[in-house]
Amino acid sequence: MRDARPTTNPFSGPETRSLVPGLPSPGPVRTSAYTSVDVLPRFELWDRMKDRRVPITFEIEVTARCNNDCRHCYINLPADDLNARARELSPGEIEDIAREAASMGAMWCLLTGGEPLLREDFSEIYLRLKRLGLLVSVFTNACLVQMEHVELFQKYPPRDIEVTMYGATEATYERVTRRPGSFQAFVRGLDRLLSGGVKVRLKAMALRSNVHELQELARFCRARTRDYYRFDPLLHLRFDGDAVRNAEILAERLAPDEIVEVESADEERLGALKKGCDKFILTRSPCHEGSYLFLCGAGRGSFTVSYDGRFRLCSSLWHPDTVYDLRRGTLHDAWHHHVPRIRDLRSSRKELLERCGVCHVANLCLCCPAHAYLESGEMDMVVDYFCRVAHGRAKALGYQEG
């Protein structure tokens, strides 16, 4: 299971760890002409550390394999893929990466996939990270949750478990997963977690296959946990460029006006979006700041490691020139030498500079170098689909574009 990135503040939980003192400052961090740091929500620890480029959070895709075969997934490989399994990081390799990250200031780790629970050594991996003192979150589809997992989470509580739901009915759920019996397995797994008192956050993907059930999905999730519910309508294309799977993902994508419609129909979603936009959206004309590609937070306070040890600035960034093989190098080298080189990349593409570089609603848009590469094969291409979503959102929220 691999869906949206976590959106919660990892530092609001009861567990804390000390940061390593004396970390050097890399100097000021560039911001875009249309994204000013001083308008971002204030989390004191994050604010203090991000400008020093400390890797406070990281995620590890412990496997790309999954028990489901979801139509929209951009990473999943078959559960019995022996080649993928042979390339997976061992528990020791994962611990070594996490230990080095912790020594550099990391506090929070997300275990994701694929489906993490597909690994027979998941409990060992989880315990190794907990013993390092890290906050640990897990993304799962819950279909493989057994009582041994519940007991593990009860004894060594996670930061949270994020569970994705693909449909409110068996027919819809299994149309998405393409696995008979997966709906009942999901219900059993979720019930085990909730009955065991494990902190669960629920989410859904808004797809062509389940859009008619989104309201029922929301009711189902909110009836089971008041802590959290969100849905994500924006689908990534495959990281491996598989043309057949990409065609399936495109078939599941909602049109920009449909995305705006489903977001507008959910008062909680719309309210959260508007609250964020009130802080993010420009109320002034931007000044052009140059041609830096990475005006986002990639590689500033977090990073991602693939199941086979490839370091990435964020979970979506798969351009071959931006990955770093941790099996051949160190996390320290990746963070302090590789990342600055990538973040210094620039573009002279006229359309990017004249459209995105001066856009008043850029912070409503998910287009970035990572997504542009997945869509077009180039990191500095303008992706019209994301542009239309951003301007549709701005219009729905009543913002005037200058």
TrEMBL record:
The keyword 4Fe-4S applies. One of its GO terms (biological process) is heme biosynthetic process. InterPro entries: 4Fe4S-binding_SPASM_dom, Aldolase_TIM, PqqE-like, Radical_SAM_PqqE_MftC-like, rSAM, rSAM_sf. Its cofactor is [4Fe-4S] cluster. Gene3D superfamilies: Aldolase class I. Residues 52-266 form the Radical SAM core domain. The keyword Manganese does not apply. Residues 1-11 have a biased composition (Polar residues). Pfam families: Radical_SAM. Residues 1-27 are annotated as: Disordered. One of its GO terms (molecular function) is metal ion binding. PANTHER family: PQQA PEPTIDE CYCLASE (PTHR11228:SF7), RADICAL SAM DOMAIN PROTEIN (PTHR11228). This is Radical SAM protein. It comes from candidate division WOR-3 bacterium.
